[in-house]
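tokens incoming
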């Protein structure tokens, strides 16, 4: 298959990473289904190549709309080679400040929608014997810090789900890659970010500096979504793609720092933790045979 024959299905295509990825794919001569809640925001993408671009109004949290979107993609192009689950939303606040419905909304969009879009696409990919799933999480899918509890929880869930998925679909010629960006110039720091319904003054000393970091640099974040899009395309082009694509030097720095601290913390009680088996128990490696 040539790259021009490849079909991408990109959610969240009206802004940020999704828009940058869609534009790059279309400019390479590939075919693309571009989806967003408001179809009118996709007009510029469709104008780039009307014969190769299918714009869809799609609420990824709507089960019927998800299936209808995949059905329309297959009816138009006959296949889906790459599903890029980009749609999502951030949040900032102390975990006690968020109402239960807000936590559920965060999980619904960032985790369940991506998981169900993938499940809706997999039958076609299995039938064609090839495919690639790109699930956009965040460096916040690998580490969690105060202020981002609900957001990181949703991304941690998608990380774990995708790791299992990758193991299960490899035999069908399907790849899965987690895309984990740091601080990029998207709408993450804008008005779409979820704020807590019930702010608690006691948490201000913890949350206020994080708000200043995130909202104070809106529009000036260091990461370039166009370069992130180029990296995602390179992963899809790779015959042996990685399980993870971390984007941004800030993401690598905080990951290295957090993992070093985590390893030291775990080591403190390792001897006691390893001594919790029955004396005569047979020890088998988890996940092996």
């Amino acid at each position: 298959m040539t790259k021009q024959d490849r079909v991408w299905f990109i959610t969240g295509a009206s802004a940020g990473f999704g828009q940058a990825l869609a534009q790059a794919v279309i400019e390479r001569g590939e075919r693309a289904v571009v989806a967003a809640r408001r179809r009118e925001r996709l007009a510029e993408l469709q104008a780039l190549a009307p014969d190769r671009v299918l714009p869809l109004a799609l609420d990824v949290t709507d089960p019927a709309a998800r299936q209808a979107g995949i059905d329309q993609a297959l009816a138009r192009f006959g296949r889906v080679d790459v599903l890029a689950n980009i749609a999502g939303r951030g949040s900032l606040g102390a975990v006690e400040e968020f109402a239960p419905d807000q936590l559920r909304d965060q999980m619904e969009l960032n985790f369940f929608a991506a998981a169900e879009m993938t499940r809706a696409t997999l039958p076609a990919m299995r039938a064609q014997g090839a495919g690639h799933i790109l699930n956009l999480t965040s460096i916040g899918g690998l580490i969690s810090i105060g202020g981002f509890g609900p957001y990181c929880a949703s991304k941690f869930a998608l990380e774990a789900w995708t790791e299992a998925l990758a193991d299960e679909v490899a035999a069908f010629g399907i790849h899965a890659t987690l895309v984990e960006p740091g601080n990029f110039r998207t709408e993450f720091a804008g008005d779409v970010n979820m704020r807590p319904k019930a702010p608690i003054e006691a948490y201000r000393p913890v949350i206020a500096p994080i708000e200043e970091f995130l909202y104070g640099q809106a529009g000036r974040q260091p990461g370039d979504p166009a370069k992130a899009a180029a990296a995602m395309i390179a992963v899809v082009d790779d015959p042996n793609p990685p399980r993870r694509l971390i984007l941004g030097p800030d993401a690598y720095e905080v990951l290295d720092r957090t993992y070093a601290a985590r390893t030291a913390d775990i080591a403190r009680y390792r001897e006691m933790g390893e001594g919790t088996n029955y004396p005569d128990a047979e020890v088998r490696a988890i996940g092996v045979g």
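note: The mean pLDDT is 94.
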